[in-house]
Amino acid sequence: MDAVERGETVIVTRNGYPVAELRPLKRRRFVPTAEVMLAFRDLPHVSSAAMRAEADALFGEDGVDG
Predict the structure, then answer these.
(1) What is the domain range of residue 30?
(2) pTM of the model
(3) pLDDT at residue 29 in the model
C-alpha cells in the first residue's frame, strides 16, 4: 500500500496469474467557486428547454428511437 500511495501500480496475482491491479486514485484538486465562475463566464448561455427539444426531435420524446 505504501508503494501505491507513492504513485506505483501493483499487480495482484493468485497462483501466479494476475487477478487485480491496485493503482493510486487521482487526487481531486479543490477549485474555489469564484475560480470556476471566472473560467466559465465567457461561455454562451445554454437553454435547457431548447436542448431538450432538440434531443426530443432527434431521439423521440421517450428517448428510444424506433
Answers:
(1) 2-59
(2) 0.41
(3) 85
